[in-house]
Specification:
The protein is an alpha/beta fold and about 550 residues long. The chain is built from 21 helices and 18 strands. Helix 3 packs antiparallel against helix 5 and helix 12 packs parallel to helix 13.
Amino acid sequence: MILYNQFILFNCGADNKTMKNIVILFAGKKIGHGFEKVFDSKSAFERCIEWAKSVKNSLGIVVLCNGENKPLIDSLVDKDIKVIVKENWTNLLLSSTVAEVCLAEKADYILYSWADCPFINSELTEEIIENHTKYLAEYTFADGFPYGVVPEAINVGTLNIISGLAKDTQKHVGDKAVERDCFFSIMSGEINSFEIETVIADKDYRMLRYEFECSSKKGIISCSRLYELALNNQINLANGNSYDVYKLFDLAEKSSLVMQTVPTFYNIQITDKYNTNSIYNPYPIVCKDKTYGDMEIERFRTLLQQIVDYSESAVISLSCFGEPTCNKYFYEFIQEILKYPELSVLIETDGISLSEEWVSKIEKSGQNRIYWIVLLDSVNKEMYSKINGIDEECYTKAVNSIQMLEKYFPSNVYPQFTRTLENESQLEEFYRFWSNKDSPSKGELIIQKYDSFCGRLPALKSADLSPLERNPCWHLRRDMVILSDGSVPICKDRIDLIVGNVFNENIETVWSKFRNYLEEHININHCAECKVCDEYYTFNF
């Protein structure tokens, strides 16, 4: 017996009776491409239903959805599958609803998954059930696998506790819209209070960062390509969800088609001007013989429509090789991005010329989709001036801009410290000050590594953070750099290697030219520049 707050849990394991479960499938948010029949005329949702029907010792299946998805779901499920409709699912509403379902059906625990995961695996599900019941766990999950192949198991008493936490000490999590890690996020505040078991992968696939779900265009492309790849390699996925996960993921690990879907991060240059002369700014060196100038707002509008048409959703950075506030239409660029709900904005700025008058006018509905990074790199005026080559008083302006931005964009403002040999002695003090919840950023900050741009900048790296084993470059897989004239270099560190122009070609055509470079990385065949580059393991969104 475990006593926790007002709840009493009685663990009745396999020694006493066969424990029964309820399978919960969540389709309560926009499920995106989850209903597209791209898996041998079946959708990800239908494959999830097939998996749910194969689960042992189950009392039934419950689908949680919203009004938008219900008609489609009703047309695809049997009458004995219960469908619960709620609008605006929050983490609290989800946890309380599944707790009620579990009690009403007299189930001992739930198996929980989102309903857009086409590769959810029957064998791993059995392992989850075995560990959960054998060790009388309260919560059981899998570790080391890509997302979307294993359900979570949570017992009935723990669901009540989680629901209580979401109302009380974890209310800030409970009030959020449902996230894929909903239950673990709520539990994290009291994690040591729970009996947790895991199923650990024989091989750790976490570094792949694969998420096999179909809510986005990126997801459906990755999953459908992997499905076809599996069939072509005698991995039978057509007859249910029983297959060798290790063979499947080993295929994915070597496939550029699965790795590279659509760009999710667009790093766009809207000006080539700077207010500072930073020691880690490569632009004066790598572009000393060419001037790009400012991007025209009309061309930017056309580019945004291309991005949405191709990627559907993405993060748009306006800080590529230039201080974005130096473009006189800077605030208009932000407003144009916010017209598209699928897009988010990243602004990396020195902060010294931001106007509160304009910042306050940025459309409030988009404020949670704007992220600000303010380049500080120091804890005092002297070091700031040394790093940036400008007047010491600009340090005060930069710090004040953080406080001003936090007022309008709470929790989305990050002072940044780029580690170099020059300022490494101030790193700890910078972290201690800005990580404090009473700091102007309310505890938010970023510690950035130094980039020598393939050896073009001086060797100022203060620490080597690269992994022991090299992975195919993340930037080739996810990022597109676009200069103000539409030119697209292969990456930000190779601005000299232009592969296309988005004002003369469509994004899809330009993006297709990246694949050969990614194939070289997969085959560990790196060019001279890539060999000395250590940005391959860094990750943007």
